[in-house]
Amino acid sequence: MTALSVNLNKIALLRNARGGGEPEVARAGRTCLEAGAHGLTVHPRPDARHARAEDVAVLAALCRQHGAEFNIEGNPFAPSRPGYPGLLALCEQARPAQVTLVPDADGQLTSDHGFDFHRDGEALRPLIAQFRSLGCRVSVFVDVGNPDVAMAAALGAHRIELYTGPYAEAFAAGGATSALDLAAATAQMAQSAGLEVNAGHDLDQANLGLFLSTVPDVREVSIGHALISEALYAGLDATVRAYRAIIETSAAL
Predict the structure, then answer these.
(1) Cα gap 40→96, rounded to integer Å
(2) 112 pLDDT exceeds 80?
């Protein structure tokens, strides 16, 4: 069955907007895990506008207590700076089950594209080896339709994460068939190369079931913005349980 990892960045963003400690990121994470989430995700950016380095340590400990997976996302090329020790250093401290490498720039609002393996591959190779040496499963963010997705395996990655933003846009516009077919073909190409497949970005309760029932053997979905937005109305516990129900229904098809 597909694992649900809840991205807590929006909880951290809300806390940071006011200062202080509320809403508490660790309490939100605990609520998600107790409601059935299989793991937690954070993407601590260098400008610390969302999750911070101190959140990483707290959530890593929380996931260990619950026997859940912790996933840290980030740009492996971003240098360290005050308040941000760098992605590798964060993983050295927290030892997450998974690190997801994403090529986002410092000022980027959200992750919106995958790696160009021809351009970035040789720079990624030694970094992937370093993350693997920490015991992390390494996933790399890729665009659906990338013809070079199999290169991720040659670089040492264990998984890819399909960028599902275009699928979500197509679904909202009422015509997701082409986007789904392309996502399924990309997943199959990756799996043929020995890679496992994750997915994330703009997945929500409306579009998740169709995606999982069409794209084969998705191992994990990372969902943050939509889940936290929906939880404002329904509550965090109920929303996580609703996502679990969608995943379980898709697995039974």
Answers:
(1) 10
(2) no
What token pair was written down for 117? 């393996």
Structure tokens at 68: 């859940």
Contact (CB, 8 A) for 63 and 50: no
d(CA 162, CA 142): 5
The question of whether 66 is a catalytic residue gets the answer no
Asked if 113 is an active-site residue, the reply is: no
DSSP assignment, residue 84? B
The active-site residue, picked from 73, 161, 220, 230, is: 73
Q: What is the pLDDT of residues 48-94, one digit of tens each?
A: 999 999 999 999 999 999 999 999 999 999 999 998 999 999 999 99
Q: Given a cut of 80, is residue 32 above it in pLDDT? A: yes
In the structure, what pLDDT confidence band is assigned to residue 105 with cuts at 50, 70 and 90?
confident
CB 159 within 8 A of CB 178: no
Lowest mean pLDDT segment, chosen from 113-117, 128-132, 233-237: 113-117
- Secondary structure (3-state) at 161: strand
Measured from the Cβ of residue 57, the count of other Cβ atoms closer than 10 Å reads 13
Catalytic residue among 43, 50, 66, 158: 43
Q: Which of 38, 50, 158, 201 is an active site residue?
A: 201
> What pLDDT shows up at residue 109?
64
* Rounded-to-integer distance, Cα 40 and Cα 27, Å: 12
Domains in the chain, please, with CATH? 3-252 (3.20.20.70)
Are 55 and 67 within 8 A, CB to CB? no
